[in-house]
Design goal:
Layout (H helix, E strand, L loop, with lengths): L1 E2 L6 H12 L8 E2 L6 E4 L5 H11 L4 E16 L11 H9 L8 H4 L14 E5 L4 H13 L16 E3 L2 H10 L3 E6 H6 L3 E2 L2 E3 L5 E3 L4 H8 L3 E2 L1 H4 L10 E2 L1 E2 L28 E11 L5 H10 L1 H10 L6 H6 L1 H4 L12
Parallel strand pairs: 1-2, 5-6, 5-7
Antiparallel strand pairs: 3-14, 4-7, 4-8, 4-14, 9-10, 11-12, 13-14
Helix pairs in contact: 1-11, 3-5
Length: 340
């Protein structure tokens, strides 16, 4: 199975769980650019990406696409003492378009009164030399919340960033140099002990949320939006494609707080992390090789989603998880989505 470098290990976690249940089924991760009958992608599954998968990995089968999990996205940085700094959409837009170059820029200082920001190394944005799903999610959020400051729309890379060939090279660079910043999944920032920005959430962007609350990532994941009709190339019966969850406010009908095992404080508003990327599975459904479909079916079941959560990413909201059953041909007990 192909997996992007930024999520290496996530698929393996599910595969190990599957092998424990079914010893004759083994999953091996390969690099994202290698042909494989199942691929995990962190970017939006565009028509071009789907066409490439068909050509290289599924010439005789049909392509199934479903969301696999969510992942919170933030601006990560190497600047001791600034952990949890509050960054508005306008400030992040300025960093990504190159107009905000220092920590004490007025756009940053305005939301961080009392925080010593002068005399710090200049900001330097870095990224990967390919499309990034985390950058797509962040720029989609900026397009929605700060359209006057961010005019490039939803993009997977930004021109001002110094780019690297691999996640390992990017992490080596950012951990060695103060002032460097990158748009990254929260899991990647956490695993490499990087500082992370707090972001404003809610309809009025007046609730500041830190990136270390996994419960609020689950709430934010229910803001993901169905984009099947625009991205699936007319193959919606076999595909279910979701865009990033933005704003932290769940879409009606897409969130089951009990199923997500979330306990909110009394009076706490139902508002979660405002920038949630969505990873998808591309599956080659070929009758001559049933293992790819079997693995995908296991991944969206409770055991598979639990393995992903143990890895550190965010499980699908229960109503959306159940929607994946149709394209993946999952069968369950009548009138229930949990007896699996």
């Amino acid at each position: 199975m192909g997996a992007p470098e930024i999520f290496v290990g996530a698929v393996d976690a599910v595969g190990q769980s599957l092998t424990t249940t079914c010893p004759d089924q083994a999953i091996v991760e390969v690099a994202a650019d290698q042909p494989a009958p199942v691929k995990l992608v962190d970017v939006l599954p565009s028509p071009a990406l789907l066409a490439d998968f068909k050509t290289t990995s599924c010439p005789t089968g049909s392509t199934l696409v479903v969301p696999a999990f969510n992942y919170p996205v933030t601006l990560a940085f190497n600047e001791p003492g600034l952990e949890g700094i509050q960054l508005t959409p306008q400030a992040i837009a300025g960093i990504l378009n190159g107009t905000v170059k220092t920590w004490d820029d007025p756009l940053i200082a305005a939301s961080n009164e009392g925080l010593a920001l002068d005399g710090l190394p200049a900001l330097k944005l870095i990224g990967l030399n390919r499309e990034q799903g985390d950058v797509q999610a962040m720029t989609a959020w900026l397009s929605k919340t700060a359209p006057d400051a961010w005019k490039l729309g939803t993009v997977g890379s930004v021109p001002v960033a110094k780019t690297f060939n691999s996640v390992d090279a990017l992490i080596t660079e950012i951990t060695a140099n103060e002032g460097e910043v990158a748009v990254l999944p929260v899991t990647t920032a956490n695993n490499n002990v990087l500082g992370m920005a707090s972001l404003p959430a809610g309809p009025n962007l007046d609730i500041w949320i830190t990136a270390d609350d996994v419960q609020l990532a689950k709430v934010g994941s229910a803001a993901m939006t169905d984009q099947t009709s625009t991205l699936a190339g007319g193959q919606s019966t076999d595909m279910l494609i979701y865009g990033p969850g933005l704003g932290g406010v769940p879409v009606e009908g897409q969130f089951d707080i009990a199923a997500s095992k979330i306990v909110l404080s009394e009076g706490q508003e139902l508002i979660g992390w405002p920038v949630m990327g969505v990873a998808h599975l591309l599956v080659c459904n070929d009758k001559s090789d049933p293992l790819p479909l079997s693995f995908a079916q296991y991944l969206v079941r409770l055991a598979g989603q639990g393995s992903l959560e143990a890895f550190g990413v965010t499980p699908l909201p229960e109503p959306i998880r159940i929607k994946t059953f149709a394209p993946l041909q999952v069968t369950t007990a009548a009138n229930t989505g949990s007896n699996e």
